[in-house]
Amino acid sequence: KQWYQRRVAITAGGPRECENRAKRTNDRAIISCSYNKATFSSGVRMRKMVTDKKSTEVSVMIQNTFEAAILLEKFPKSQIDIFVQVLQSDGGERCVAINATTLALINAGIPMKDYVCACAATVYQDTALLDINHLEESSRGPLFMLAVMPKSEQIVQLQLDNRLHNDHLDKVVKQTIQGCKDMQVLLDRKIKERTVEAAAAYDIKPRV
Questions:
Q1: Helix, strand, or coil here: 99?
Q2: Coil/strand/helix, residue 82
Q3: What is the pTM of this model?
């Protein structure tokens, strides 16, 4: 999935037998998520650490986000895998990873309650700015990230870096939710295009 100057590779698979029996649950599947950022993904060359705390935190965040959306109860005692590799970075990787993971899960045939769409915002001179890049992330302003299921507007993930004045909160939340809904339209269009392409390969006329 590529979004402007951001590129991520997502692999989603399963359900399959749970590798860790200690984590296996009898009534639902578990999600295993791995998030990694390539050393060449940004303009600054990074040294790869054995344990990357930030990558671990993002992995847990993505796992928690999709636990609210995937119909895990349909696959007891099993495991669903999500692998995220950031290849090109310009800020907003968490949102791009969530949106691309939604496409990957749908492509893998894993049932979900709804799309999961994410969008980030900041405030500059009383104006909410959406789809934050690296320069805007580095401005030390408030960074508000939201992931929702657009049909119900259920919030499945919310993160705030730095302080956000209470006067701006309502406006930022509304615009970020609208950004998530706009993203859902784009994702839905991509799914339909992919369906048409796949059906054409088998000479099938899909209803989209």
A1: helix
A2: strand
A3: 0.87
Q: Which residues pair with 37 in a beta bridge?
A: 86
Structure tokens at 180: 């998530």
**What is the per-residue DSSP string for 117-166?**
EEEEEEEETTEEEES--HHHHTT-S-EEEEEEETTTTEEEEEEEES---H
* DSSP code for 72: G
User: How many angstroms separate the CA atoms of 125 and 120, rounded?
Assistant: 17
User: How would DSSP label each residue in 4-53?
Assistant: TTEEEEEEEEEEEE-S-TTT--SSS-EEEEEEEE-TTSSSSPPPPPSS-H
Which pLDDT tens digit goes with each residue over 34-55?
999 888 776 655 555 444 788 9
- Those residues whose C-beta lies under 8 Å from the C-beta of residue 161, and which sit 6 or more positions away, are 142, 143, 145
Structure tokens at 161: 């870096």
Give 47-97 as a DSSP string: PPPSS-HHHHHHHHHHHHHHHTTB-GGGSTTEEEEEEEEEEE-SS-HHHHH
Q: How many residues does the chain have?
A: 208
Give the pLDDT band of residue 4 (cuts 50, 70, 90): low
